[in-house]
Amino acid sequence: MSNVEDRQDTVRSQMLVDGYYADPAQRLRNVRALFNRTARYYDGVNSLFSLGSGAWYRRTRLRRAGVRAGVRVVDVAVGTGALAREALRLAGNDAVIGVDVSEEMLAIAQRKLGIPLIQATAEALPLASASADYVTMGYALRHVADLKAAFREALRVLRPGGRIELLEISAPRNKFSRAFAAFFIGAVLPVLSLLMTRDRRSSTLMRYHWKTILRYIPPDTVLSVMRESGFINVSRFSDFDLFHHYSGQKPKDTD
Ligand SMILES: C[S@@+](CC[C@H](N)C(=O)[O-])C[C@H]1O[C@@H](n2cnc3c(N)ncnc32)[C@H](O)[C@@H]1O
Predict the structure, then answer these.
(1) CB of 71 closer than 6 A to ligand 1?
(2) Looking at the domain assignment, is residue 125 inside a domain?
(3) 49: Cβ below 6 Å to ligand 1?
(4) Residue ranges making up the domain that contains 7
(5) Of all protein residues, whose CA lies closest to atom 20 belonging to ligand 1?
(6) In whole angstroms, how far apart are CA 239 and each of 62, 242, 246?
(7) How far apart, in whole angstroms, are the C-alpha atoms of residue 198 and residue 248?
(8) Best residue for ligand 1 mutational test, from 102, 106, 148 (most atoms within 8 Å of Cβ)
(9) Which residue(s) pair with 164 in the sheet?
(10) What distance in Å separates the CA atoms of residue 102 and residue 104, rounded to the nearest whole number?
């Protein structure tokens, strides 16, 4: 098997997470159903997970990426609006559009942000070509079934020179850090979220997060897929080998 085939196989196989999807075709339906069922717990579970630093971290990464007043941002997989809210703070009103596949997540985002929201997938964005300065995506790469299609769509809706900014988590490579992350994210947080909400759906969401983190393609493979999809100036900034910020740019000489 060639390196490319090997990597494609890795990309496909790691998309499958035991107990959640039997095959890739079911992925979108199951992901949407999971986020619909657990939408009401997302913000609580998310603040447990980030120990309250989530908004600050998202805003800092967007600011460093150059998101500022006047730019147009499409936040893909907007969820309840955690990343979009920080983009709004930096870019101002009317600057941010959110897209997500889950109607329940979108309903919460609508109540919180009141920005234009569209129910659609990352792989088929119902948006005009060359209409955005930034395409952002927070913690959703792991859920997207066809990464290349999602990157192709991001490239299409970006204006030439526009930027893609992706935040994602991956399992640390160091075995001690990995064991700690497995214990904290995979075992402690599901119990804490169960205690907090008294509903098993919240701990299901947390366990699902850890399984997808554990199975996801390595950070360097994400960068390779971005490059293969047509992005240039691709880079990664990482904290603790756990939190990753991937950036890329649409070439200026394309439309
Ligand atoms: C972990 S939440 C992230 C929410 C938000 N971006 C944040 O920063 O917290 C993941 C979101 O991705 C959405 N999602 C999953 N697969 C998707 C896809 N293929 N296209 C669009 N949205 C998707 C889910 O419905 C969910 O709302």
Answers:
(1) no
(2) yes
(3) no
(4) 3-39+52-173+216-249
(5) 121
(6) 15, 6, 12
(7) 41
(8) 102
(9) 135, 248
(10) 5
**Whole-number Å distance between alpha carbons of 231 and 204:** 35
248 CA distance to ligand 1 middle (Å): 20
Q: Is residue 10 included in any domain, yes or no? A: yes
Total structural domains within the chain: 1
Please check whether residue 203 lies inside any domain of the structure: no
**CATH number of the domain to which 34 belongs:** 3.40.50.150
Using a 6 Å cutoff on CB, does residue 207 contact ligand 1? no
Does 198 reside within a domain? no
For the chain, 255 residues long, give each residue's pLDDT as a single digit of tens.
Answer: 344 444 444 444 444 444 444 455 677 888 898 899 889 888 888 887 776 568 999 999 999 999 999 999 999 999 999 999 999 999 998 899 999 999 999 999 999 999 999 999 999 999 999 999 999 999 999 888 888 899 999 999 999 999 999 999 998 988 888 898 888 888 888 888 888 888 888 788 788 888 888 878 889 999 999 999 999 999 999 988 889 999 999 999 865
Distance 78 CA to ligand 1 centre (A): 6
d(CA 192, CA 198) in angstroms, rounded, equals 10
CA of 2 to the centre of ligand 1 (A): 32
